[in-house]
Amino acid sequence: MMHVLTAHRPFLLLLALFVVGALGHARTLPAMEGSDQPLHANYAFHLMQTGALPDRATRVTNPTRQASGQPPLAYLAGALWLRALGIAPLDGDAVLNHITVTARNRWYQPHDVWQRADNHTVYVHGRDELVFGWPELVAADRALRLVSIAWGALAVIGMYGAAGEVFRRRGWRLAATALFAFMPTMLYISSYFTNDTPTVAFATLSTWAGLRLARRGLGWQACLLAGLCLALGGLSKVNALLAGVGVAIALLYDWRARGRSFAFVTGRALVIGAPVVLLFGAWVLYGLVTYGDPLGLNTHQHITTGYYFAEPRSLAEIAPLLPHLYLSYLGWFDTTPLHPVTYTVLGMVIALCLLGLAAGLRLSRLSAIQSVQAAILAITFLISLAAMIRWMQQLSFTGGRLMYPSHAAVALMLTAGLFLLAERLPRSRFVLRVAPVALVACIGLFAPVVALWEAYFSPPMLSRERLPALIGAPVTFDGTIRLLGIAQPTRTFDADDRSYDAYPLTACWEVLRETDVPAAFSLKLIRDGVIVADRTSLFGMGRYPSVSWRAGDIFCDEVHFWLDDPDLPDDPLPQSGLTYDIAAVVLNAETLAVDWPAVNDAGETIAVPILGQAASRAGTMALPGNLPALAEPVAFAGLARLTHADVQGDVLRLGWQVTGTTPESWTGFVHLYDGAGNFIASVGDGPPLNGAYPTWAWSAGEVLAETRTLSLPPDLPPGEYRVQVGFYRADTGERMPVSVAGADMPSRSAVVAGLLVD
Q1: Which residues of 77-92 are buried (b: 16+ CB within 10 A; e: fewer)?
Q2: pTM, whole model, 2 decimals?
Q3: Of 7, 199, 542, 547, which one has the greatest count of Cβ atoms within 10 A?
């Protein structure tokens, strides 16, 4: 035994590192946040309580939902483990009620999946899952995750065996095993309770069996083990049986190439098929007789509208989903992605492997056994891909984890690419074997933990010195939390922008006292009492529920307004060239009542706290066709040029070409002078565009059309008058510099039109 352990010490270290990595993932991922994890746990609870399989006929209402049609092995193992630990089963209906009502984050649905710090939490958690509110469910969840880690370890052992059939050198065998074990998705599915992990384990063992039978022949013990692995894989999840293609190819090879008799090969096929028929076949027969559904696939129908397509979608319809299939194969945790750089690095490793594979197979001559092994791996992958595409045609969403029964074949083919490339570049052999594997291992062990931490854990606590520059007077809500102000990266937005970043801002908060009231905040863009954009969320963008608050905590929320929120299709849209007030409220997260009264620092109640303004960019406004151009445009201190102007009756019409920006809100003035140059009256002071679009909102390149109604003196004598315009600051009276044809105007105003009074 010691000799065996010593001989395989590097693999045992690799296996230990995998287990540590999976434990780290399991600890980082909060309770029940794994894909369909509540349904998987309910299946195990159901087996503990009843000793019977779930009723597929009630799949729409029973606590296992679509999982009710899944084979039972993973759940039976979970149930036995919980019973061994003395953990009592929980009521499945109560579990679903808890996670859909009590613990649910109703604002879960990231407006942009790439923004990990924004409502990726399906449930509220808090420190040590205190907010989740069900310690027994958390304990059961954590115990069940250990079962998945054990299945994952078994899969890694199977991969090590499969790699030993392909690579005779220990270094390459370890490299293949590491590529298999440390792919982020492999660690992820090993970190929460799911039937995917035993499926991968037995599919990998089946791949090992196929490769072993092809290389060593059809020993009856090996055939029996191959059949047992296939049967247990099928009892974990039906798609594990796709790995049986390797066993089938081995049988065909032994018959055709080794000259075995047809009777001999048939006998070995019966040895392989016996456990499959006895174990998996019994479950198939049960489904066929009881529900007319031998493989349990019908339970995915009619779960929710739009989830299942009775008429499969065309290949053209699912083509846009293929990039996500690729990314989720590498690592995409429910709705939480890795960093784009991570996918780039993993993509570069895969590209290098494929390059070596293509070049090596073209230039190398494979032995008969190597050709069979290559066929086993390639066909296993292609069949799995074909099955995945077929499944994508019928389900509205799927993930790359469903292709992991062929993960061993993928890892072996990628390693073969590195091996063939190293054979062509012997001086780089060590680097080609170690560097790509080290990159994948580092990414798999650390990148997902970072991604999950950003998606699920509290935002960083700040000191006052680390706060960004804030605007808006502080507002205190119910004496519990104070909105210190907001920071605006920009004060303008494009009204036609439908992206996640249509309008971002940062809201910073200070906790004044602890509370057990569930709270959410809502920031709104309002004009004339009409809300045109609204962003509501739990604090911390889903990551810092109010029950977790501690007095003195200071944190900020990066809020992004989706101007055309798909969840609120009936809301009005913002219009171009207008300003909107930014309002804030705090509400009860359960009842949605806005019952957190707001007061200012003077203790005065504020009905709707207004923190600042934002403006939708005007773009290019259409100038009236009969508006004459000025002979010489009037330039206003790098802000704009007045290019068109005239007076019709008592209306001054202006056409502006914006050339720059200003942070100030300048007030326009219109002065009337007589023919001798004497000042008559101020006839049109006020912010530009009647206050709808102040100068701080102007953006270079815009064309603005403005009209001002002139307040002409009622006793104005007949004659010719001149209209001069300019800008000034209302707080200081300072005028904006003005120039015409490059010459500065001493009065800091310019004549733009004449007025004839009869």
Answers
A1: bbbebbeeeebebbeb
A2: 0.89
A3: 199
